């Protein structure tokens, strides 16, 4: 009898221990899953669904703007291994670093060194950037989009944080503290890519003939370099008389001048940052460049990202 009781007690204690360990390991996960499936959470999610959709739409728009740099596709020429068959059997390890694509220029040591001193000049010279009005307009457009990307990412993060904070009192403390990323995902927000991998980079690469030394100069076509490229192109382009003195340069500074002139308000829907502090405002050519418009103060206007996306190449 006593042995039977001991066996029962042992089994009960063992089951209790197993349950305790299970709850210790998986209890919080079970708790979060139960909460995210609860009617209370579903109601909270539905209450902000319009804001969630707007944030995701802006996120999609930003991802499209990242693709604004258009050029001939970069081809993958494959890989190879260089083997030295001389009696000395040199390793020549630097040979295996050679890269072949249209954004890498194999050059001499002197060109690689000079490209560090004058990156924009050498970028134009060796990567076939034509010095004309068409190129200038193209890079102004890219700069305009890239600035919108950077501003948009920051505004999007702030807007998402603002929305989540507005419902924080209704969300359990443990969920906010330990499952913040999961919470934003369960609320319906898509992942925001804050990296700068969309920025194209150009490389001057020097590999010695003997394969024993190498160096390179990497030039990212980021906002800072785009501003410098635009100014460089403009300085050496011979403007026609009809354009001379009229054309402005679509630089970071001009964008802010136009926004300030338009009171940081969309010229189409009249919504501004006073109404929506995290509103992404962009600079638009009233007569698009594709239809003969040029970058002049009277041909530029401030539009919110929604109106700018809707307009496209139309004249409004």
Question: Can you describe what's shown?
Answer:
With 316 residues, the protein is mainly alpha-helical. The chain folds into two domains: 180 residues, no CATH class; 73 residues, no CATH class. The chain contains eleven helices and five strands, in the order αααβαααααββααββα. A hairpin with a 6-residue loop joins strand 2 and strand 3. Helix 3 packs antiparallel against helix 6, helix 4 packs across helix 5 and helix 6 packs antiparallel against helix 9. It is flat, with a radius of gyration of 29 Å.
- State the low-pLDDT regions, or none: 71-80, 240-244
Give the beta-strand count: 5
In percent, how much strand structure appears in the residues?
Answer: 5-15%
Q: How many individual domains?
A: 2
Largest sheet: 3 strands, mixed
SSE succession:
HHHEHHHHHEEHHEEH
- The helix tally amounts to 11
Radius of gyration: 29 Å
**Roughly how much helix do the residues carry, as a percent range?**
40-55%
Distance between the termini: 94 Å
The shape is flat
* Mean pLDDT score: 84
Q: If strands are numbered along the chain, what order do they take across the biggest sheet? A: 1-2-3
Class per helix and strand makeup: mainly alpha
